[in-house]
From TrEMBL:
EC class: isomerase
Chain segments carrying region Disordered: 420-443
Residue windows of the TPR repeats: 251-284, 300-333, 334-367
Record-given protein name: peptidylprolyl isomerase
Native organism taxonomy: Eukaryota, Metazoa, Ecdysozoa, Arthropoda, Hexapoda
SUPFAM superfamilies according to UniProt: FKBP-like, TPR-like
Originating organism: Vespula pensylvanica (Western yellow jacket)
Top-level lineage group: Eukaryota
Enzyme Commission number, as recorded: 5.2.1.8
Domain PPIase FKBP-type intervals: 31-119, 148-234
Bilayer-spanning residue ranges: none
Gene Ontology molecular functions: peptidyl-prolyl cis-trans isomerase activity
Catalytic activity: [protein]-peptidylproline (omega=180) = [protein]-peptidylproline (omega=0)
Bias (Basic and acidic residues): 427-443
Length: 460
């Protein structure tokens, strides 16, 4: 096939000749990792480098300026299995400096390249390939959405090449769950630029997990694909850019969001919102006078609300800790003691929980709920004591039985004096070492009393 000019300026800077056609229609995506074999030569045929000679394919991220310009441009046009020859002018290779000693300045180079395979860019938190991006249309600028940014996207979800959703949606990043956006899409959007369109391959752990999505005919533990376009986004307000009153205003808005999510039973989203309130207020030392009082009041109610959310989601250690933070701000807070008592009860520590419920009664003696919880604690403590008593009794019985078995085993190991050689007359046991008499031979277990060897009592 004749060489084709693929240089951006169409000035012959990169000529591509296909030596072997590839398969399929897909091309590698900017940002993806490509795997190739190559052989580099000068125009006179002198070879200066070859991955084949090393028997080691070469991998690089396409379009990231990890290689010479000709490669980023030329390899992006290759299909899997394709072999092509790229003739690269100096401005698309090593330019005026060259790469001494093998490549002199202003040298035109030829590369025979075989496209072996490619994969997308790994956006997963653990870098385990569970969120893979294959870019279709690059975005513009260098800014990407952050947590709480308002994003406007179009997404198309596919399972086994069947489309299960196709829609426009707008939401605040971090709250996608509220509008049915899976975690993998949200995580990927943190790396998108405005106008970008990419294919996402998402493993089940960041998709619909073990529950699946029956209404979309998606079974448990299924991997899915999305094509996502980030149409636009608005940056979230940054805490550092606000003064004290503005921070409190933003914290109030987030707290109200959290409360609305809580009322809707969306506890995980409520927790996210309450944590953001803490981020705005907890570490700021600049609040004074009235602002300080407002900040402390917000922090107190936020810790209490977090504790309630944690109790609802069976995160009892976190609930306990949230209550303890609330008590640092208000050491006589009735709700904090009560909810911490509930957390301790759930953690099977009634003997600690009862102390918190007793503190509630010190603050409010008519608190009926706390009184009932104390009864529950006492009943649990009694059950625990009875269980422990039985456990120890069984344990001691077991030890006694083991001791008895050990003693019996030791007795069995002792020799039987009525059997074997003991009590029988051996040659060395008879006085004087004399031979056994006929009577002794017939009655080997009878001890003869002729200890002095005189012959007395023989044959008795």
């Amino acid at each position: 096939m004749a060489a084709v000019d693929i240089s951006p300026a169409k000035n012959g800077g990169i000529l591509k000749e296909i030596l072997k056609e590839g398969v399929g229609d897909e091309l590698p995506i900017t940002g993806g990792k490509v795997t190739v074999h190559y052989t580099g030569t000068l125009l006179d045929g002198t070879k200066f480098d070859s991955s084949r000679d090393r028997n080691e394919p070469f991998k690089f991220n396409l379009g990231m300026s990890n290689v010479i310009k000709a490669w980023d441009i030329g390899v992006a046009t290759m299909k899997k299995g394709e072999i092509a020859m790229l003739t690269c002018a100096p401005e698309y290779a090593y330019g005026e400096t060259g790469s001494p000693p093998k490549i002199q300045p202003n040298t035109t180079l030829k590369f025979e390249i075989e496209m072996i395979d490619w994969s997308g860019e790994d956006l997963s938190p653990d870098k385990d390939g569970s969120i893979e991006r294959l870019q279709i249309t690059p975005g513009k600028d260098y800014v990407t959405p952050r947590d709480r940014s308002l994003v406007n996207i179009h997404l198309t979800g596919m399972y086994k090449d069947e489309v299960f959703e196709d829609r426009d949606v707008q939401f605040c990043l971090g709250e996608g769950e509220d509008v049915g956006i899976i975690k993998g899409v949200e995580k990927a959007l943190e790396s998108f630029k405005s106008g970008e369109k990419s294919k996402l391959k998402i493993k089940s752990k960041y998709a619909f997990k073990k529950e699946g999505k029956p209404e979309f005919n998606i079974p448990p533990n299924a991997d899915v694909e999305y094509i996502v376009e980030l149409k636009s986004f608005e940056k979230a307000v940054e805490s550092w850019s606000l003064n004290g009153s503005q921070k409190i205003e933003q914290a109030e808005l987030l707290k109200d969001k959290g409360t609305n999510y809580f009322k809707a039973g969306k506890y995980n989203l409520a927790i996210k919102m309450y944590k953001k309130v803490l981020d705005f207020l907890r570490y700021d030392k600049n609040f004074e006078n009235e602002l300080k009082a407002e900040s402390d009041s917000l922090l107190l109610s936020t810790h209490l609300n977090l504790a309630l959310c944690y109790l609802k989601t069976d995160q009892n250690v976190e609930a306990k800790d949230a209550c303890s933070e609330a008590l640092k701000l208000d050491p006589r807070n009735e709700k904090a003691y009560f909810r911490r008592g509930q957390a301790y009860l759930a953690l099977a520590s009634p003997e600690i929980a009862i102390k918190d419920f007793e503190e509630v009664l010190k603050i409010e003696p008519k608190n009926v709920a706390a009184s009932k919880q104390i009864i529950v604690c006492n009943n649990l403590i009694k059950k625990q004591l009875a269980k422990e008593k039985k456990l120890y009794a069984n344990m001691f019985d077991k030890f006694a039985q083991e001791d008895k078995q050990k003693e019996e085993e030791e007795l069995r190991q002792q020799p039987d004096v009525m059997r074997g050689a003991l009590g029988e007359w051996g040659q060395e046991e008879r006085p004087g070492g004399r031979d056994a008499t006929a009577f002794e031979k017939e009655n080997p277990n009878i001890l003869m009393l002729n200890a002095n060897g005189t012959g007395e009592f023989q044959n008795m």
